Amino acid sequence: MHPYNYYAPENINDALGLLEKFGSKARCLAGGTDILVQTRGGRFELDAIIDVKNIPELTKVEWTKDHLLVGSAVPCYLLYEDEKVTSQFPGIIDAASLIGGIQIQSRASLGGNLCNASPSADGICPLIVHNTICVIAGPKGSREISVDQFCVSPGKNVLDEGEFLVSLKIPLPNSGFGAAYERFIPRNEMDIAVAAVGSSVVVDGGKITNSKIALAAVGPTPIYAEKASEFLLGKDVSEDNLDQASQIAQDSCSPITDMRGDVEFRKHLIGVLTRRTLDLALERAGGN
Ligand SMILES: Cc1cc2nc3c(=O)[nH]c(=O)nc-3n(C[C@H](O)[C@H](O)[C@H](O)COP(=O)(O)OP(=O)(O)OC[C@H]3O[C@@H](n4cnc5c(N)ncnc54)[C@H](O)[C@@H]3O)c2cc1C
Architecture of 56-171 per CATH? Predict the structure, then answer.
């Protein structure tokens, strides 16, 4: 393994200074459950690992008037052990409580899951359907981008050299909001999704006034299924409409065949999981 130095800056400016100094030879470390495995496996030859967990903005969970701000290095267990977060952000909790196992969840963050940009990442679809915004720090100041635009290809994200993810800004849900995330794996746990879906709805007077559906492990990045989401807008909650949305989601993915599943199986799974997560999201929204 290529030797590297470990740094643990205590504020955003010091982290930016280190990223500028080491350029492409530096990587951030949140929980380390991806980066340490990858570094030991020889995927990167780094000179610097920058542990971001001493930076207050990256490790706090903060409620504002309109948002829940989750620091990018907050470990999953801190989210699902918080009753208020659990009750308001069910789709995100579905994912936070299934990533790896308990040991992994005590370290792994949603920020790290997102920055790692795996097509099968469990944390990204729920963030998409909860309309999450990424808050990014960089040498030119800070900027914000929607999570559905953050991943660009397998393992690649929109961060420019010198930038890093500070926090995830999740809008507080409207009344009538519900969300859910489900994946298919051949084992009970500790496996990579063969296909997965996150769905959210807002229901008002029996009609779906807002909806988002996102798909994992069926394309080069997690996919916001725009057509399927928009199909549901203004529609009644009915078996037929939910089935049609699931079919549209199934048609909008582009999976590959590999040892874990072929194209046909993955498309079938997307149809089934879309319907299941819509049903659960509706139940959580207070519908039936
Ligand atoms: C046994 C095991 C089981 C796993 N199971 C699952 C699973 O079921 N589902 C799943 O989705 N994943 C799983 N993973 C992968 C991993 O645990 C998750 O992706 C996790 O959420 C990564 O978070 P982390 O905080 O550990 O990230 P890290 O490893 O610290 O970082 C991941 C990547 O993001 C970058 N990064 C981290 N923080 C920032 C930042 N603030 N700004 C910019 N870049 C940053 C790092 O440089 C690195 O490239 C598993 C891993 C292991 C080892």
Answer: 2-Layer Sandwich (3.30)
- Same CATH topology for 5-51 and 56-171: the answer is no
Backbone angles phi, psi at 59, to 5 degrees: -120, 5
Ligand 1 pocket at CB < 6 A: 27-35, 37, 52, 72, 99-100, 104, 107-109, 111-113, 115-116, 121-123, 159, 164-165, 190
Span from the CA of 99 to the centroid of ligand 1 (angstroms): 10
Question: For 207-263, how does the pLDDT look when each residue is reduced to its tens digit (9 = 90+)?
Answer: 999 999 999 999 999 999 999 999 999 999 999 999 999 999 999 999 999 988 899
The closest-lying atom of ligand 1 relative to the alpha carbon of residue 100 is: 5
State the pTM of this model.
Answer: 0.97
User: How many Cβ atoms are within 10 Å of 219's Cβ, its own excluded?
Assistant: 17
Q: Which of the residue ranges 58-67, 111-120, 278-287 would you say has the lowest mean pLDDT?
A: 278-287
How remote is the CA of residue 112 from the centroid of ligand 1, in Å? Answer: 4
Q: Name the residue ranges covered by the structural domains of the chain.
A: 5-51, 56-171, 177-284
Ligand 1 atom nearest residue 34's Cα: 29
Q: Does domain 5-51 have CATH number 3.30.43?
A: yes
pLDDT > 70? residue 287: no
CA distance 112 to 56: 16
CATH class of 177-284: alpha beta
Q: Given 3-state DSSP classes, what are the helix, strand and coil percentages for the chain, each rounded to the nearest 5?
A: 35, 30, 35
